[in-house]
Amino acid sequence: MKYETAIIDGKTVAADLRNSLKEEVEKLPAQPGLAVILVGDDPASHVYVGNKVKACEAVGIKSFESRLPAQATQAEVAAEIAAFNDNPQVHGILLQLPVPDHLDSDALVQSIAPSKDVDGLSFINQGKLIAGDKTGLVPCTPQGSLRLIKTVKEDLSGLHAVVIGRSLLFGKPMAQLLLSENCTVTQAHSKTKNLPEICKQADILVAAVGRPLMVKGEWIKPGAIVIDVGINRLESTNGGGKLVGDVDFEAAQGIASAITPVPGGVGPMTIACLLANTIAASQAA
Q1: Is a pLDDT exceeding 70 seen at residue 182?
Q2: 119 a catalytic residue
Q3: Per-residue exposure over 219-254, b if at least 16 CB sit within 10 Å of its own CB, e if not
């Protein structure tokens, strides 16, 4: 059976979420605040931070920025985090990753107050997710991916979900979110044997490995919902390079029932869910 594959438009879903968040902020007694700490001169990080600041302004969240030089010490970055932890106007704290190699990013992330950990990476928030405690903050990209899945199918009970990837930032929390939706979840990774056959069993296939076009059309179960979290730039002779995901998008056409494009799928949801986490943190404060 050939499917008319629906393209899951992350830009539209993210815009709808931002609009609802703006209305929510207008009803709050106090303005939510998000602090972003940027260490060094990574060009992509500067773009990401700029986009986050603009998104905050658009929905009525006050943004706080701390830009530190690449040679900043562990103690100096930790002091910035501590100051934001103690600032009652700041409800969310984001340490923009990656940080320079001489810094211990794991220790810095864990020093963020769990109630302000809008990336959902603290051990407290990870534990709450595993325990099914709804008071925790959930990592933004898996949260956004689940929202996209549910635009296609609201009730996921009993579906078999395969997540390729096991990172703390995405793979593990994504699997937990799907478990909480009553899916049967298989977590695959670089050491998984018979990966194509396992993927072929998935009603929901989520790819987050950072390998361009790895998931072929024949890996996809007819009618599956495919969420492509990868973003990779292909080499080109003119120095540009096309952006592609971890899934062969063209090959998936007519097989998947729905798929996210790259770009324009999961990416826009990450910042929208960061804003949602900041507002949730402000309401819990």
Answers
A1: yes
A2: yes
A3: bbbeebbbbbbbbbeeeeeeeeeebbbbbbbebbee
